Amino acid sequence: MRLIAVLSAAVLAALVVAAPAGAARRSVPASFFGVNWDQEIAASGPGGLQNQQFGRMAAAGAETVRGLFLWSTAQPDQNGPIDFSATDQLVGGAAAHHLTVLPIVVDSPLWARAFESSFSPPSNPQDYAAYLTALIGRYGPHGSFWRDNPRLPKVPVRAWQIWNEPNMSYQWSTPGSTEDYAVRYTMLLRDSYQAIKRADPGALVVLAGLANTSPQDLAHLYDYGAKPYFDVAAIHPYTYTPAGVLTLTREARQVMRRNGDNRKQLWVTELGLPASRGVAQSSNSLQTTPAGMTRFLTNAYRLLAGNARRLGIGRVYWYTWASSYSSNAGPAIFDFSGLFKWTPGSPVVAREPAYAAYVRAARHWEGCVKTTMARCKRTRRH
Question: How far is CA 170 from CA 305, 311, 333, in A?
């Protein structure tokens, strides 16, 4: 199945869409431009407002949406039924505008946790694998969701991300734990890979996004035997400069080459620089102003898109679509990272300066202006 799941540089080149003579050509792979969908708007925004945002995403040039699939919410009781209502809303809202979904499957229920932390991995990876199997039965190519919603465009989920940032202790274990995350994560990845391939052999298994020291942590997972159990590597190259983003991405690709995995794609499943300087109560160096976030987005996408073929970068997801921009958030700098501002209870989703930069970047590299159905309505000319 690996010949189906991975893309060589030649295949990536074939994904470039031709445009009329004299017009700009698409110069990045399909689904290169993505956005993350989380925070308050995803958790508590009214349904109509949420659905409106998926149309906005498509018109902005996004082609794929990365969102949380919380196992704890879906199956709070051991051996209990799975509640798909929250994930139905995400998959349905995206499909209505021809957007693909990349689920981040996280957050074990209390009954399944290995640790006391809220984002604990499961004590038994097979329980998590069973949830993945159920999700594919709902949203995969032959999923019941599509039979239940025949009027929706059928956009099955064909890629599954196994957890988020397990190399960060707060996303994995209890504070002060000395357990090496790579041991348990590799077992979770193995069982997940096997379950996904049984349920949908053509689906992609995406490694958890690795943050901060991502190249070193990727090498660490290779050392623990992760190589056979993922189709796509993923990193979160959080750094203050666009050049630093490219450096981390290049180093991650070098790790893949050293491990004989150069034919696999590399996805940036989170990219961002919060506009929290001066408003968040934090001394974190990963902060800028709204104008700085705009410049960062423009230049980071320029570098990643310009090196997409050479480095095998298949997708880049901006973090995040909308956030609260609340000065009451204390040290939570990522509350100031959205392309839009939304305060719970407000009927208004307001544009931030970086939104226009995202649209410009997508139009430039995709070669056209998009509709709310993610279709080119006119070609962008030179």
Answer: 31, 30, 16
